[in-house]
Write a structure and sequence with these properties.
With 204 residues, this protein is of the alpha/beta class. Helices cover 30% and strands 27% of the residues. It has a single domain, classed as Rossmann fold (3-Layer(aba) Sandwich), CATH 3.40.50.150. It is globular.
Length: 204
Amino acid sequence: MPHYFEPAGPVRADDLRPLDVVLAGAPAGVVTAPGVFSANRLDLGTSVLLRTEQRLGGPVPAAGRLLDLGCGWGPIALALARLAPDAEVWAVDVNPRALELTALNASRLGLGNVRTALPDAVAPGLAFDLLWSNPPIRVGKDALHGLLRRWLDRLRPDAHADLVTHKHLGADSLTTWLGAQPPWTAQKLASAKGYRVIRVTRAP
């Protein structure tokens, strides 16, 4: 898991790998590079999340701030930016190379509403209207729980988070844990190819 703990240096031109994907229902020519999560393809879990959102997720807020937590090379942030061109999309990752690639891909696709940031660079008072994430499940339970608590608490009262995790990596136990964290409640939104999409909302 070097993309979590040992970030590579700045991206060089000869590091870049072209990749053709579909984001928000339209083709997207992006670039990836070694040293980030799923550098060779659109990760299957991320793909499940994006397809689920297209079918079941409901409308994306047209404005406000939307968060891609653990952005990698940017597929979720780029999809959000396409779906909500008037919103401010924040792509957050601990890996500077991931942020560099996300910014480069946003520029290539003409998406000027994407902002990239290390976690500690996001102003403490900034609140979000939506969170989508394929969270870094392999960092360990304690680190993952701390990460999710930190960012769920930055959602506005009427906002929600949608997370994707594989069932063999603890999706069901994560759903149970999330539902036991006041003021949050959690439920399975969809399942596909072994992945669960979990919706987290504020309890009434």
